[in-house]
Specification:
Strand order of the largest sheet: 2-1-3-4
Number of helices: 13
Number of strands: 8
Distance between the termini: 35 Å
CATH class of the largest domain: Alpha Beta
CATH architecture of the largest domain: 3-Layer(aba) Sandwich
Shape: globular
CATH superfamily of the largest domain: NADH-ubiquinone oxidoreductase 51kDa subunit
Number of domains: 3
Structural class: alpha/beta
Order of helices and strands: HHHHEHHEEEHHHHEHHEHEE
CATH topology of the largest domain: Rossmann fold
Length: about 290
Amino acid sequence: MSKNISYLTGRKGLEENLFEKMGQAAEAIGTPELSDLDSLRDEFLVGKSTVYGATTFYDFLRPENKGKKVYICNGTACMTAGTQSKVKHTLRNHFSANEIGEMCCLGRCHENAAFHLNGKNFSGHDLEELPAILDCKAETQEQWRVGAHGTAILTANPKSLDELYESMKKWFSTDPTSLLNEFKIASLRGRGGAGFPIGFKLEACRNESSEVKFIVCNADEGDPGAFSDRYILEQRPYMLLAGMMLAGYVTGANRGVVYIRGEYPESVLRIESAVGLYLWRRNRFVVIDRRPAP
């Protein structure tokens, strides 16, 4: 995205941005009305092609999904597994053809037979419980099977909240420069295809002269067989948030953003629940709500 479009779409802040408004406009019928798009173009001063490109790209905005009540995953893993024809046939017993749409990808590559209904994802043997799901009497029975070659890190037993709290107290009593050097010495790299050095990235952000800085967790994924981000979001949410706070401390960032794709509704709920447990205030990590995360 060009810098001028990026500025125009977000110049009103995180709450009042173009893409959020487009999503809200699509909630009623599955896609924004043309009149809504015209109003948004005038409000955010962007071109027609920019707005049209976004609405025809994202699953929850596309005109083709207008009026749809259920969506079948058309991701590569599900398609090559050969499960989606049965999913569509079964759904046709409860929905008309015009009510069935498609979206990609639901992150259920390990089970396939994936579909999205009433704001939730299902896969595997869930299709056998479709009547109960339609009556809101059944939830997904998704099964995780995780492991590690060598020393487990992400798949190891997560720290408790008290343990995380103690670790964070240690971090925030240490000079940020010293922590940054530890990142460099550890040679920690990003898990994307580029394997970008984290220390270099954090240092560049730290050295940037700006009153406002953000730590952005890009939790978007959709490559065939890729659902590692969803695992972290849903199974290790507190560790993810603690990592973002550590990065914010090192770089001097005062805001954090977790970008989660619309196809991961469970991930959104897990992160919202985890965020609700904490309040960052006056260099203290304070528990404000002891409800357990789902």
